Amino acid sequence: MAFSRIQALTDAEDVDVNQIFEALEGDAGKGQPISLTALNDPVRFALAARNLDPTNSRALQVLKADGTDLLIADANGVFVDRVTINQIATPPAPGVGKTIFYTKADGQVYSRSGSAGTEARLVRAPIVTTDIAADAVTQSEFKTGVTANPTTTSTVYVDMPDMEVTLTTVGGDLLVWFVAALAHSTVGNYIQFSARLDAGVEPGAVLMHQNVATHHQTAALVWRFRPVAAGAHVVRIRWLTNAGTATAYSSQRYLLVQEAKR
After folding, report:
1. Distance of alpha carbon 83 from alpha carbon 235, whole angstroms
2. Distance CA 56, CA 76 (A)
3. DSSP string over the chain
4. In this predicted model, what pLDDT tens digit does every residue of 162-177 receive, in sequence order?
5. Rounded to two decimals, what is the model's pTM?
6. Which residues pair with residue 255 across a beta bridge?
7. pLDDT by residue (tens digit) across 9-60?
8. What domains can you pick out in the chain, each with its CATH number?
9. Are 164 and 232 in contact (CB under 8 A)?
């Protein structure tokens, strides 16, 4: 609707006054948009609201049709029900004590702060690999022994029961830790260990010699595989003995595999 103006030297009637109240009270079809487009002032704001109450300073409240808050501005800051940030070119520095938020073509949200306008990208959720510093662990998998007292008499590498991990990597290095309690049936014989990536060879073999027959010893070993292509990979602990019988005590063996970003 448009308000009817009262002509000069004409008496105002109730209908003239009521049109204003109807608009302010929200009668259907009686609203009058306020469009401050004619203002031309390089200093002052087109619209300013101030509440002199020093505690709450409740300056502005805009409601939805259901009466819930759409926008509030008071001493606690500004509350909005939803924010849409438009994609823009990198804006100028906002000035001391101010921060501006915006998006770029990559779809991420950025900010610039202070007179220097230092730019920062807000962290994505969920965090992706590109947000993580080099050598930081991006994922890990842990396995414990299940089979009790497994043995081997093999003189070539075979898989140690339960010591296998599958990871789908993103191209980082693989760090492998293995701990177990083991024993050999014969003094002087040895158990040899290694970790195997997929169908590759067993690198960095480690020997554990038996000084007292069937006396359990603890092995703590570590390997690093690099480079590793992105995709599904299997890491297995492998073992052998030169003669006799090697035994992994009880189920006390543990395998941890972690991927570190490159």
Report:
1. 46
2. 8
3. --PPPPPTT----HHHHHHHHHHHHT-TT--------S---SSS-S-------TTT---EEEE-TTS-EEEEEETTEEEES-----B-SPPPP-EEEEEEEEE-TTS-EEEEEETTTEEEEPPPSS--GGGSPTT-EEEEEEEE--SSS-EE--SS-EEEEEEEEEEEESS-EEEEEEEEEEEESSTT-EEEEEEEETTS---S-EEEE-SSTT--EEEEEEEEE-S--SEEEEEEEEEEESSS-EEEEEEEEEEEEEEE--
4. 999 999 998 889 999 9
5. 0.53
6. 143, 178
7. 777 778 778 877 777 777 777 766 666 777 788 888 888 888 999 899 999 9
8. 95-122 (no CATH), 137-260 (2.60.120.760)
9. no
Residue 22: both structure tokens together: 């109807």
Q: Residue 154 is encoded by which pair of tokens?
A: 């093999």
In the numeric block, which tokens belong to residue 142? 């842990």
